[in-house]
Amino acid sequence: MSEKELRRKEIKAAGDLKRVMSDYYYRMDRISRGEEEGKIAWCSSVGPAELLRAFGFEVYYPENHGATLGATRTAMDYIPLANAIGYSPEICSYLTSDVGSYLKGETPLSRLYPGIESVPKPDLLAYNTNQCRDVQEWFEFYGREFDVPVVGINSPRALVEVRDIDIANVVGQLKAMIPTLEEVSGQKFDIDGFKESLRLSRRCSELWGELLGLAKHLPSPWTFFDGTIHMGPAVCLRGTQEAIDYYELLKRELKERIESGVAAVDGERFRLYWEGMPIWGKLRDLSEQFSELRACVVVSTYCNSWIFSAFDEKNPFESMAQAYTEIFINRAERVKEEYIERMVREYQVDGIIFHDSRTCPNNSNARYSMPQRLEKRLGLPCLVIDADLNDLRCYSEEQTRTNIEALIEQLEEIRG
Ligand code: SF4
Q: Helix 93-104 to helix 62-71 angle, to the nearest 10 degrees?
């Protein structure tokens, strides 16, 4: 066995994860082909999924497809096609790679799930601009292509505080969606169904938070890179029992690792925070490099973004508005810094990596001097990596590797 194989520890539950995700995609494929009853709603990743599920929609996430295009390194084949119809190379590369793959009539899902020829067709699209405006433009494109309704929440942005007036605003917009959802789904709104999907989503979210929190243990039983793979159910299947069952299973395995002293990174020496988007096409390489350097990326803004602590089925509309408005990406710099500072302390972090993702300014926090401020305040080194979530033409292998090595040398020096 090579040294790399010894260091990279596969999570056994990954087999179950594959089954859960393939059931989800094949179910949508059957609905889309008319072989099974149902309707499909496309939703932005932090959009109103629980409300859609309350109307019986199966929920598909174009961003998850975008991440698949990135992870399979096929995004660059498709981005130019979207550029050619006027979508700038500077905007979200999830959007451009996804639109490009649609224009080409191809999807990596066909390779991952044999028999699936295309992404499922939408009956309706629902977005929330709490993360960015790109999702609105992205969904409007498909609304025109498929000639189906597009509903959305235009959230108040970059908030220092989430005020009552902000919640009332979002609640009003959620309620205004209901007539369209009733019409497309053919179902009347049922408050109990909504409460139930919110209850399931809250449980999923609690479990996901608990699982990520296990990385506080020294040494950590898993890494940010594992998290990006295992977050599939928290994104795509929140509001369902399947997601809960899967995370219970994963929890047992990670707890066993802790009990038997199994570290995700052998000889864990340094603990890091990953700020910003993953670099989907480089997850494996980066994970191996950090392992070789005996550094474990234990916490990230990205994976933590699917912990929605505010969900409360007793107060469904208000708590949902709160949960989706207070997310990290939708907050002012000051609030983001306080959050990172808290995570650094809780996870005993030695250094922070900021991924400045070229086409996602919304989820890149290195552009207004945050690394410099945090470095000064926390007294730990921050490294900024210039790259992109999907477009590997913005990624320099050599420069990134060298910069990461330099960060670890710096940490060695600090430790003396
Ligand atoms: S937050 Fe960034 S990656 Fe996500 S949809 Fe918006 S621009 Fe794209």
A: 90
